């Protein structure tokens, strides 16, 4: 399957369904009262990390993903159904970035991990919610809250334990083929490898994953060669295996070129643990090996290992070294997914009924709003105050239909309960002639009035 590691897609969660305007109509029951149900919540946009996927190629062909809108409420207090979610299946290691590709909004690193990325809009309240002592036949309803929409970039950063680095032709793919069951293309010309390959190394009971990426050349960070665009695929590895072609004239220059590109790339790549391997030892004389090893050790200040991917010489030692470091690193920090080079910020709330007060906060881990039970209550009270004010106005206007758009703070459950009670009291004490006419007129032979 063709490899693609970035794609731009448009996501939209479903709008909430509108509430219904309806009145109870039943034989022998006069003035049945409002019974319009609430609209259903819009579908969410869910992102799921699926095992067995290694490319984002599917997202080249389909770029727009919209969740279903919530169904509208109906008479007899029937609430609308929830809109269906839309689920994007992406490879493990996929990050979601905002449109300018700077901020990581979500990072899926575990197989099966699911995130609600955009939450569907809440359904609007039906007219049953707007019953008050003074307006017994409200024709008011809420049209539902809009869903969220966003253009985002999906970017795959493969997750491997060890990353292979080197100039083109250093023998990276040969090493991968020699140590794993992967079958990368190997040839005697630069840029044989055009997209990353993964392979699993099995050493006794242990196993780890190696990533082979296209070779880097000087100026890769400025876009030379294939650029440094594939470096992201080794960014999350625990260790780098830097292979140097032993047959090159100046191995120190080769080493420096790659180090400079790592520094220019930024992030944590240059600080990552590195094993340096002088490759193609089979094609070198012993003195040459000694000389080049010493020069490289002087430059890097670290031990240089001698190997040949083609003959297998020294390969086991290199694998053992990699495995030791990987195991140590896993013992220290089992879930480490090294910080991405890009910034990661919490996602701001959009188009939700939930409040944006200090106590509630967006938990990026679970992709939901969390915190402050108090915050919920505070919200209800606050909204209720708003509601009372709105009702006071209503009264003045003699129960006229209010525009749904103006009534953003008009429905909460507590408000409903309270106003119901208030209603009962009002029935006893009040002579509600004015209002009584209204339900009859509204319900006469009409179906539930849904917008
Ligand atoms: N003598 C010798 N030749 C090798 C060895 N490893 C690789 N080669 C040769 O070097 C050439 C390049 O090998 P690749 O494995 O394709 O190199 P690469 O680093 O993956 O190259 P790119 O994909 O272009 O970045 C091929 O002709 C290999 O046969 C080795 O250990 N000894
Ligand atoms: Mg290669």
From TrEMBL:
Domain Obg positions: 1-159
Compositionally biased residues, Basic and acidic residues: 354-364
GO biological process, one term: ribosome biogenesis
Positions contributing to GTP binding: 166-173, 191-195, 212-215, 279-282, 308-310
Superkingdom field: Bacteria
Keywords per UniProt: Cytoplasm, GTP-binding, Hydrolase, Magnesium, Metal-binding, Nucleotide-binding
Domain annotation OBG-type G: ranges: 160-327
Protein's cellular compartments: Cytoplasm
GO cellular component: cytoplasm
GO molecular function: GTP binding; GTPase activity; magnesium ion binding; ribosome binding
Ranges of compositional bias, category Polar residues: 441-451
EC number: 3.6.5.-
Compositional bias (Acidic residues): 365-436
Subunit structure, as described in the record: Monomer.
Family that this chain belongs to: Belongs to the TRAFAC class OBG-HflX-like GTPase superfamily. OBG GTPase family.
Biological function: An essential GTPase which binds GTP, GDP and possibly (p)ppGpp with moderate affinity, with high nucleotide exchange rates and a fairly low GTP hydrolysis rate. Plays a role in control of the cell cycle, stress response, ribosome biogenesis and in those bacteria that undergo differentiation, in morphogenesis control.
Name of the protein described by the UniProt record: GTPase Obg
